[in-house]
Amino acid sequence: xxxxxxxxxxxxxxxxxxxxxxxxxxxxxxxxxxxxxxxxxxxxxxxxxxxxxxxxxxxxxxxxxxxxxxxxxxxxxxxxxxxxxxxxxxxxxxxxxxxxxxxxxxxxxxxxxxxxxxxxxxxxxxxxxxxxxxxxxxxxxxxxxxxxxxxxxxxxxxxxxxxxxxxxxxxxxxxxxxxxxxxxxxxxxxxxxxxxxxxxxxxxxxxxxxxxxxxxxxxxxxxxxxxxxxxxxxxxxxxxxxxxxxxxxxxxxxxxxxxxxxxxxxxxxxxxxxxxxxxxxxxxxxxxxxxxxxxxxxxxxxxxxxxxxxxxxxxxxxxxxxxxxxxxxxxxxxxxxxxxxxxxxxxxxxxxxxxxxxxxxxxxxxxxxxxxxxxxxxxxxxxxxxxxxxxxxxxxxxxxxxxxx
Length: 405
Fold this sequence. Notes:
This protein is α+β, with helices and mostly antiparallel strands. It has ten helices and 17 strands. The chain has a seven-stranded antiparallel sheet. A six-stranded mixed sheet has the order 1-2-3-4-12-11, with helices on both faces. A two-stranded antiparallel ribbon has the order 5-9. Helix 3 packs across helix 7, helix 4 (129-148) runs antiparallel to helix 7 and helix 6 (190-210) packs antiparallel against helix 7.
């Protein structure tokens, strides 16, 4: 198979294989990857995607295969974060000339951001019936988890189901290359997933201290199969990933219902829908071994498998089909990837810069979203070129409406 990666040996560790030709990689991200490569549990090599950048605990845009062990910080705290996209029978001509009411309808349908007067960012004050129905699929296993970890019961589990969150989470209305309308959104397991991730990352660190583990970075503490917390973490992370997928499904249904109150023409949806994680761990077989593959900011790209690679506000996004590249552990990037911190973006860019970068998109134009402006991210075209041997582009999407948390 064609290959486009950069191979780097790591003294005392496994190699790095990086699909980063033509895109910037920070020294801090390279240091994080090198530290992870020196762990004794890492199998074969670490794959770095073109959107790779420094992350909390572990590198965003990394694919880390491990044998009989999992690194909770490599999964992170936004467990199961990912994308869902849905094609419709609508075309650009069916959209109203003024897209403001469509954006407003979506914002009313899906709690997002930090709502005025709410004690919690974007939570339901009273969850609607569809959310209660969806929660019924999650509740039995959650109740079991709460028996072992009672503090879980105090999280905003059901209040966050069907809600967007903040930061880089978004809902978009897009047009593809043929002019068809798509709905797309990005979110994960919200507060309950954050609680699970934070709790088990801390437990792994405590275990490492008790066992005097010699770690290149304390954040890379891991659970081995058979250890005290391993089975509990696998159960909890699996549940949080399920919560995240259902969360996206609930929101997508509400987005479509909201659109139907504004768009006069009847339309069908779910013609071609994709729902994929990009922060998660999965047991898979690679190079003849059963391994735990942790994708932190990476998407599964098995041969023929559909995935989503979003750009930033104002930039194109892509529906892709995986090529099943073995060296990437059948993975691809999860987006464009940040090129600077949120703080630096707020210092460097003005509202005028942001307005110019998002021209033609019905979206927020206030100072609180400057950290999400397109220039804070890598060039999505360069990112796609760097991974041309990992995926084929099926659809190219350009947003016309963007709702940010």
